[in-house]
């Protein structure tokens, strides 16, 4: 079952990545990706893997040591849970970057490789997107909708 959940984790995330990368201008893409619930299936997989092992997981994360985390992740079950954890967060970050890029007008051809980098090496994809996004400024309409600070 663990191997199946491991395989299923990316399989349920892949369609969302495909929409953002291959069909960024399709109206359904925006509707689908705008929901943070796109990560829900992965969160369910994560819960299925972690909740039964909470007795081993909680001590390892509450007071982490390198040996403790290595031992936790060094099992099929631990590796599958870590994979689900990474895929969920990478997808959530990719979703944020995609939505932000649309608001700023970042071209899809610029975003595609950044999203691929986020799929493969999540934090490096985020690190690459953050400076790239500064080249495009939000439209005045979007800024006008933000709350104004007084004082």
Keywords:
151 residues, mainly alpha, 0% strand, elongated
Descriptive notes:
The chain is mainly alpha-helical. The protein has helices at residues 2-22, 27-33, 40-50, 54-62, 66-73, 76-104, 108-120, 122-133, 140-144. The chain has one domain. Helix 3 runs antiparallel to helix 6 (76-104) and helix 6 packs antiparallel against helix 7 (108-120). The chain is elongated, with a radius of gyration of 18 Å. The model has no long low-confidence stretch (mean pLDDT 92).
Fold topology:
Elements: H1 2-22, H2 27-33, H3 40-50, H4 54-62, H5 66-73, H6 76-104, H7 108-120, H8 122-133, H9 140-144
Main β-sheet description: none
SS elements, strand count: 0
N/C terminus separation = 58 Å
* Coarse morphology: elongated
Structural class determined from secondary elements:
mainly alpha
Low-confidence stretches: none
Q: Which sequence of SSEs, written as H and E, runs from N to C? A: HHHHHHHHH
């Amino acid at each position: 079952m663990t191997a199946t959940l491991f395989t299923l984790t990316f399989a349920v995330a892949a369609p969302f990545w495909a929409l953002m990368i291959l069909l960024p201008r399709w109206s359904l893409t925006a509707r689908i990706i705008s929901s943070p619930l796109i990560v829900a299936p992965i969160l369910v997989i994560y819960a299925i893997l972690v909740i039964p092992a909470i007795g081993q997981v909680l001590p390892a994360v509450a007071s982490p040591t390198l040996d403790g985390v290595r031992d936790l992740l060094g099992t099929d079950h631990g590796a599958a849970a870590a994979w689900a954890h990474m895929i969920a967060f990478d997808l959530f970050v990719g979703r944020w970057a995609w939505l932000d890029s649309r608001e700023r007008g970042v071209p899809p051809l610029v975003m595609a490789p950044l999203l691929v980098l986020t799929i493969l090496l999540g934090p490096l994809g985020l690190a690459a997107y953050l400076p790239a996004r500064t080249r495009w400024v939000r439209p005045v309409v979007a800024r006008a909708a933000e709350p104004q600070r007084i004082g």
